[in-house]
Amino acid sequence: MTNRQISLDNIDRVENLAFVPLERKYLKAHTAATALSWLGLMLLPLFILLADELDGRNLIVICAEAVLLAAGLVNLAILPKAYAYKGYAVREHDITYRSGIVFPKTVTIPFCKVQQVSVRQNPVSRMFGLYAVDVVSGAQMLAETVIPGLTREKAEEIKSLLIERTRNENR
Amino acid sequence: MRTGDFSEPRRMSGSAYWVLMAKGLREYASLFVLLIVLKFIDADDQHTFMEKMRVVSLLSAGYLALAALTAFISWYFKKYYIEGGKLIFMHGLLSKETTSIPLSKVQSMRTRQGFIYRVLEMRGVLFDTLASKSAEIELILDDRDWKALMERVEMEEAVPEAPSAAVSASSELPVSSELSGASGTSRFSGAAEGRTSGSSLSFSNSNLIKGAFCQNHLQGMAVLFAALAAVYNSVTTVDDHAVDHIIDYVDTHAGTLSLQPSGYVVVAVALYFFVMLLWIGKVFLRYANMEVRIARGQLNFESGLIARNSSRFSYDKVCTVYVKRNFLEQWLHGSTVMLRQALNATDEKKGADVRVYGSESAADFLSWWLGSSYGSSPEIVSARSGYGLMWHVMRLDILISLAAAVTLACFGLYVWLAVPAAWLLISLAKGLMAVRRGRITLKEDYIEIRNGRFADIRNYVKYSNVEVVRLRSTPFTPYSRRVSLTLSTNGTSFTLRSLRIEEAREIYELLLCNCAGRPS
Q1: CA atoms in the 13 A half-sphere facing the CB of B326
Q2: Domain-embedded: residue B2
Q3: Of A13, A75, B300, B428, whose CB has the highest number of CB atoms within 10 Å?
Q4: Same structural domain for residues B79 and B196?
Q5: Closest C-alpha among B79, B124, B80, B125 to residue B106
Q6: Chosen domain end from B376, B401, B434
Q7: Does any CB of chain B come closer than 8 Å to the CB of residue A111?
C-alpha cells in the first residue's frame, strides 16, 4: 500500500486549466437546433385552434405563441455566452468538460474510470460537419459526458487519446 | 449426466423439476380460477351441476398438464456448465440461447429458499452482473450441487488478488465489547477460527424488531397499499363491477358508520398501529435469523423467517457503506447499516440489498471493508455545507406552505393557517439539521460523507469507487462563494451543497488525484 503525500501546488488545478473551445460552427449548429426546438414547441399551441367550443382561443394562442417566442429569443441570445464558456481540457490522468450558463458546471472523468468512448452525430450536427465524443463511465449519476462541436479529426483524436490513456491507466 | 466438477453441460437435478412445476402452477393459478368462476357464474350456461363439474375436471387437468409441460420444457432444455472461468448457460426450445458469464464479472451471487424450495431441500441460485437490472440466471440446485458449485466458483475466482486490507480485515476482525458483551446486540462466533477461515456475525431477532421499530413506521403504508392492490387485482379479475358493489355498499351504509371526532382519532391511531405492525412484520419476515459470514474478502449474508435469502459478494463489489442513526436508534443503541452495491447489480424489487437493522455492527462491516485501522485514518481535509443547503431542503415546503396559506386565506379559514405555519417550522428545523450534519471529510484511506436531516447518516466511500466528480455553481455563487460538489460511484451518488468554493475545489482535486492513483 502506498501512502504518498499529495501536494496540490504541483498539479494543474482544474480552475486554472486552459479549456479548448469548441468549433465555431458549433454555435451555428446549436443555434439551428435550438431554433428548431422552439419552432416545434410553437406549433403545439396551434392545436388549440381546433377546439371549436373554446371561447377566446385566438387570444390564448397569440399569448402562448408570444411567450414561447420571447423565451426562444432569450434562449438564442444567451447561446453565444454559453458557447464561449463550453470547453474541454485533458490532463495527465483525466478529462474535464465545462458547460452551463445559469448553473456553470465542470465534470471531470479520470481515465481509469472510462468504460466506453464513441463518436456520434445527429442530423443537425451532420449538416454542419460536426461530431460529438461520448465518454461513458460506470457512475450511477453523470454516467455519460458528451463533448459536442468537434471536427471529425478532433473527435477521432480525442477518442484515440482516451482509449489509449484508459488502457494505460488500467494496466 | 451428473458430473461433480461442472465441466460438462448438465441439467438441474430432478427435484428442480418439482420446484418449476410449483412455479408453473402458481403462474397459471389466476387464469385457472378465473375460468372456473366464469363457468359457475355464467347465467346463460344451461349445463347441469355434474356437467359443470366435468368441465371443471377437464380444466383442472389442462391446468396441471400446462404447468407440467412448461416445467418440463424449462427443466429439460436448460443446461449449464463451467468452462474457462465462465458459467455457460444453454436454454430455449425453439431458439437456442447460450449465455456466458465470466465468473470474475459476477457482482453478487444470491440464493433464495422459498417455502417450496425448503420442502424439497433446494435453493435458487442467482448470479447478478452489472449488465442487467435483474438477475441473469436462476439455477435450482440441491445442497450437494450448491456446495460443489460454490467450490468451483471459488476456485475460478481471482481471489489471490484480494488486497491485503481485506485479508487483514477478515482475519483480524475485532471482537468489540458491544458484540460479545452483555448488551447482546449481536453475537460474534468463530473468532478463533476467524484467523484462518473467517468469522461470522449473528443478529438477534429482538434487535431486529427494535431496529424496525426505530424506522419510519409509515413505510408500512407501502406494505398495506401493496396488499390492497393485490386484493383489488384479484377482485377485478373475477368481476369488473365488484368495486362498484363495494362503493355502493359503503355509500348506503355511510350514514350508520359516521363517527364522532374522537372516533376518527381512535381510527387513525388504530390504523397507525396496524401499519406499524405491517412494517415490523415485513422486516421480520425478510431479515429474521440473520447471519453474516466474512471470509477471504467475501461476505455471505443470509436471512429470512420462512423464505431464506442469501447474498454472497466480494468486498470490492461494495461501493458504499451506509450507517444511519436516528434519535430513536441513538437512544436504544442501535443503527441501520446498508452495504450498497452497484445499482444495477441487484434486483432491488426483491429486496436483495444487504441491510442490518437495530444492532451496533457498523464497526465490524467498516473494519471488513476499510481495514481494521479505519478509525485511525488521518483526516486530510473536510468541508461543511452552508445555509444554501437549508434553502434547498426547504424549497418545496416553502412553496407548499405558501400555496396552502393563500388558499386558506382566500376561503377565510384563518385559524387553519396554523397548519402551514407548523409545517414551515418543521421544515425549518429539518433545514437547520441538514446544515448541521452536511459535511464531507477526506481521510487518508476513505471518504466520509455525512448527510441526513433528523437522522445522522454517514456514508463511507473508497477513493477507488469514485467514478466521476462534478463542481456546479449557481447564480448566487459570485456573492456567496458557495458551490455544489457531486461525486458519483457505480452505485451511489452524493451532492454536497453550499460548500465554500476554495474547500470544494481542493476536495475536487484531491478526489481526482486519489481516485486516479487507485484504480478499481
Answers
A1: 13
A2: no
A3: B300
A4: no
A5: B125
A6: B376
A7: yes
CA distance readout (Å), B445 to A25, B176, B404, B459, B495: 46, 22, 48, 14, 20
Print pLDDT tens along chain B (520 aa).
455 677 788 888 888 888 889 888 888 888 888 888 777 766 666 777 788 788 888 888 998 999 999 999 888 888 888 887 778 888 877 777 777 777 777 777 788 888 888 888 888 888 776 665 555 567 888 888 888 888 777 776 654 444 444 333 333 333 333 333 333 344 334 333 333 456 787 788 888 898 888 888 878 888 888 888 877 776 676 666 667 777 777 777 666 666 677 888 888 899 899 989 999 998 898 888 888 887 767 788 888 888 888 888 877 788 899 999 998 899 988 899 998 887 655 555 454 567 889 888 888 888 888 888 888 889 999 999 999 999 999 999 999 999 999 999 999 889 999 999 999 999 999 999 999 999 999 999 999 999 998 899 999 999 989 999 999 999 999 999 999 999 999 888 999 999 999 999 999 999 998 886 654 4
Question: Which domains does chain A possess?
Answer: 29-81 (no CATH), 87-170 (2.30.29.30)
Cα dihedral B456/B460/B461/B462 (nearest 10): 160
Kindly determine whether residue A2 and residue B517, on different chains, have CB atoms separated by under 8 Å.
yes
* Number of domains within chain B: 3
Q: Which of B474, B486, B490 sits opposite A138 (nearest CB)?
A: B490
* Domain identity same for B75 and B131: yes
Beta carbon pairs, A and B, within 8 Å:
104
Nearest CA in chain B to A5: B444
Which residues, listed in sequence order, are joined to residue A90 by a DSSP beta bridge? A95
The verdict on residue B454 lying in a domain is yes
Q: Which residues of B touch A96 (CB under 8 A)?
A: none
Structural domain range at position B321: 165-214+285-376
Q: The complex's ipTM?
A: 0.87
A15 and B CB contact within 8 Å = yes
CATH number of the domain that B462 lies in? 2.30.29.30
Q: Test B468 with A139 for CB contact under 8 angstroms.
A: yes
Nearest CA in chain B to A105: B472
Q: Distance (Å, rounded) from C-alpha B125 to C-alpha B344?
A: 18
Same-domain check for residues B484 and B508: yes
User: Do both B289 and B435 map to the same domain?
Assistant: no
* A141 touches B466 (CB < 8 A): no
Sheet holding A144-150, edge to edge: A114-120, A131-137, A144-150
Q: Residues 32-91, chain B: which have Cβ within 8 Å of A?
A: none
Of residues B349, B364, B353, B380, the one with CA closest to residue B445: B380
Please check whether residues B77 and B105 belong to one and the same domain.
yes
| Residues B350 and B307 grouped into a single domain | yes
A139 and B470 within 8 Å at the Cβ level: the answer is no
Contacting residues of B for A109, CB less than 8 Å apart: 467-468
Which residue, of B326, B350, B376, is where some domain finishes?
Answer: B376
| CB < 8 Å to A15, chain B | 505
Residue B226 domain flag: no
Q: Is residue B408 part of a domain?
A: yes
Round to whole Å and give the CA distance between B468 and B490: 9
Task: Kindly list the residues from chain B whose CB atom is less than 8 angstroms away from the CB atom of residue A101.
Answer: none
B205 and B350 assigned to the same domain: yes
Which residues from A are below 8 Å from B509, CB to CB?
8, 11, 13-14
Q: Provide the residue type at B501 as one letter.
A: I
- CA B464 to chain A, closest CA, distance in angstroms equals 9
